[in-house]
């Protein structure tokens, strides 16, 4: 009987494993086609400066308009893009597309908008992010100051020396650098200071219960205090409630990003927000052609 059960268990796992392998294969094939068929698109989520209540920049977030599946979240396909190395090509496309968008806004009544782009670890090590950035800025006539790169702690730690030297050349161009998902890796801020960074994004994991969980509040406060003494700006990710906003204002967080203000939006929708935001900054009347 035990033998029988063992055999059934074995068979069950084999079938399950086959399904997983097939699903993964199917996903990989679909992702390769997606790139060729131009099914990727960028959405943009505003970051708000707490001191002014105004939009201070946008984060570009990758979306996959998969036929028959709707809009697919990056959580479901970025890991596969990384595993297969497809992230290198898709990542260059993201940088080029974000810069083209910044260039278009620059030529419109919206004017100068700063946009951050997520860069994957493998893309940073195997691709040529430096030349992707230089080309994209040049082709679109975009000042480097309007582009920001977001890297996670773990991708920075994958090859410390190469990362530091690439980031230094990007910094010399004028590009801004952020550490994304801060607090979820195992590195200390003191160590990360070796990298030329401007900004630190507190991971949503610590923000979610920041007003109800004393441990999370303590971590958020420690990050804010240490970051500020190192002259780094701090963005809180995943801010959804006014209680979180009040907490973050009280503790001098610089910027917030989250559903409380806006979800990530298609370019045309975020344009409406940017135009409204612009009207709030200017005296009443028609928008001047060249602004900011
Ligand atoms: P991330 O860079 O930390 O981006 C923030 C994520 O939090 C986004 O998820 C955003 O939609 C979500 N978010 C924003 N505000 C809130 C909120 O108030 N509540 C909640 N629950 N979530 C919020 P998204 O767009 O699904 O992206 C997930 C991750 O995928 C990103 O995390 C980033 O690591 C990766 N990713 C997205 N686009 C790209 C890309 O172009 N290249 C690379 N390499 N990775 C990307
Ligand atoms: Mg990010
Ligand atoms: Mg993040
Ligand atoms: Mg994240």
UniProtKB/TrEMBL annotation:
GO terms for molecular function: cyclic-guanylate-specific phosphodiesterase activity. Residues 24-278 form the EAL domain. Keywords: Phosphoprotein. One of its GO terms (biological process) is phosphorelay signal transduction system. It comes from the Bacteria. This is EAL domain-containing protein. The lineage of its organism: Bacteria, Pseudomonadati, Pseudomonadota, Betaproteobacteria, Neisseriales. The chain holds residues 453 to 744 of 893 of the full protein.
């Amino acid at each position: 009987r035990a033998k029988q059960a063992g055999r059934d268990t074995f068979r069950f796992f084999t079938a399950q494993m086959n399904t997983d392998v097939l699903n993964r294969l199917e996903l990989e094939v679909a992702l390769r086609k997606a790139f060729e068929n131009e099914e990727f698109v960028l959405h943009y989520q505003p970051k708000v400066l707490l001191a002014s209540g105004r939009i201070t920049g946008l984060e570009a977030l990758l979306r996959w308009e998969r036929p028959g599946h709707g809009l697919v979240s990056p959580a479901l396909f970025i890991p596969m893009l990384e595993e297969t190395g497809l992230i290198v090509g898709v990542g260059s496309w993201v940088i080029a597309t974000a810069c083209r968008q910044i260039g278009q806004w620059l030529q419109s009544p919206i004017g100068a908008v700063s946009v951050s782009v997520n860069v994957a670890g493998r893309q940073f090590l195997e691709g040529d992010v430096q030349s992707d950035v230089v080309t994209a800025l040049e082709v679109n006539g975009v000042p480097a100051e309007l582009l920001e790169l977001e890297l996670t702690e773990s991708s920075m730690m994958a090859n410390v020396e190469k990362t530091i030297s690439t980031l230094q050349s990007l910094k010399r161009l004028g590009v801004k650098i952020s550490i994304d998902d801060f607090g979820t890796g195992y590195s200390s801020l003191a160590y990360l200071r070796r990298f030329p960074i401007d900004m630190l994004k507190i991971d949503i994991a610590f923000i979610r219960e920041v007003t109800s969980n004393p441990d999370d509040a303590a971590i958020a406060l420690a990050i804010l205090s240490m970051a500020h003494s190192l002259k780094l700006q701090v963005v809180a990710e995943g801010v959804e409630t006014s209680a979180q906003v009040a907490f973050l204002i009280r503790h001098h967080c610089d910027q917030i990003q989250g559903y409380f203000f806006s979800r990530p939006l298609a370019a045309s929708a975020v344009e409406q927000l940017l135009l409204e935001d612009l009207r709030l900054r200017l005296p009443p009347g028609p928008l001047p052609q060249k602004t900011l």
